[in-house]
Amino acid sequence: MTNDPFSRLSVNQEVLTVTQLNRCARTMLEEVFSGVWVVGEISNLAKPASGHIYFTLKDHDAQIRCALFRQNALRVREVLRDGSSVKAYGKVSLFEGRGDYQLIIERLEPAGDGSLKLAFELLQKKLSEEGLFAAEIKKTLPAHPKRIGIVTSPTGAVIRDIISVFKRRAPHIELVLIPTAVQGKEATFQILKALALADKQQFDAIILARGGGSLEDLWCFNEEAVARAIADCETPIVSGVGHETDVTIADFVSDVRAPTPSAAAELLAPHHQDWLFTLKQLQQRLERSIRQSLTQYQIKIEGLLKRLRSPSQQLQQQTQRVDDLELRLVRSFQQQRLTRQSALNQLESRLLAQHPQKRLQTIAQQLNTAEQRLLRVMQEKLKYLRIHLTTQVQALQIISPLATLERGYSIVLSERKEVIQSANQTTVGQDLTVKLSKGELKVRVIDNQLDPVNLSLLDG
């Protein structure tokens, strides 16, 4: 059977579910692209509470989703930014839940720099701000030391070189070795223990030494715990770690930094002798040997990693799905909050529009208008009634008896104040009252002729 994964595409003709298809695609991608380096620019950076990191890696023409899980993200989580150029190593995979093509990152470095270098710079900045590198707290080396403690590996060229320097330059000085590992997983703990022990031995000075190596080889001397242990020591410490070009955090915290372990010994020896050339040759041979060993081990480890199927892959897929749901939930919550805020603003606007104060102002304006209209109507009505009354008065005056009296007529009243309209209503000798226009007359009937006397209107 062929080892080419793409040959399976034409062999298997069965109908797949979406889940099966995505699973097969993920397996094929991980087999073909099990370890690749990719350079690009970070965008859409997301850091959910799980500790994982998600972002898009892009260049001018393309982009790919990336996932950096928590165990690989601890050292770079706080320094990643959108727009940063990075170099990422990992495998190409597929997020089955969404069918997204992605890169599962195992190592991440700034473009051109290593992640260890970045961690080095962050710790250097932190400790410098705390004042652990300040010159005023450095202790002075003794001019004539008698007992010196050496914290280094009991094997290798470093301890032999230091002893050789003291034998040739100051054989009377007592040297005491406090052995410790200077590389590997246990190195940090052993260095801490050795420093604590050496600080209690009342040495005149302590040499902390190690031969040259890569940044990874020297990393135990860049650990924060080691730096703080050096700062807490009461005994002066000379750091002689690595080559002349190698710089560690331990160099900054120590009271004096020597470019090499032999130079550290010469600083504490009464007389100076130069044998740096031999030391450099040894350092170069050690560096080449270590690098060759590391390269061989790296090739072997990468071969084993390609064959190893980690049981955590499924867990990482599920964790990524949880993170995706978390991000979607946050976006949904924010959208609902904005929608409800908009609805609340609309209700507040409507409430302000229906405020009783506005209605009262409107009603007051309407009442004022009605009052003015009522006043005008009343005035017009009074005017009309005044004119009508005047007309009625004039009409009444026309038919009024008083007006008749003013024209020369009179009204005859009986004793009972009854109007006498005919002579037969009277009797001879009866007293009557004659009502004139001005005043009245008391008369007595002498004769009541029943036949009227015709008077000529023309008579004078």
Automatic annotation (TrEMBL):
Reaction(s) catalysed (UniProt annotation): Exonucleolytic cleavage in either 5'- to 3'- or 3'- to 5'-direction to yield nucleoside 5'-phosphates
Pfam families: Exonuc_VII_L, tRNA_anti_2
GO cellular component: cytoplasm; exodeoxyribonuclease VII complex
Naturally occurring in which organism (per UniProt): Entomomonas moraniae
UniProt main location, coarse: cytoplasm
Entry's EC annotation: 3.1.11.6
PANTHER family cross-referenced by the UniProt entry: EXODEOXYRIBONUCLEASE 7 LARGE SUBUNIT
GO function terms (MF aspect): exodeoxyribonuclease VII activity; nucleic acid binding
GO BP annotations listed: DNA catabolic process
The protein, known as: Exodeoxyribonuclease 7 large subunit
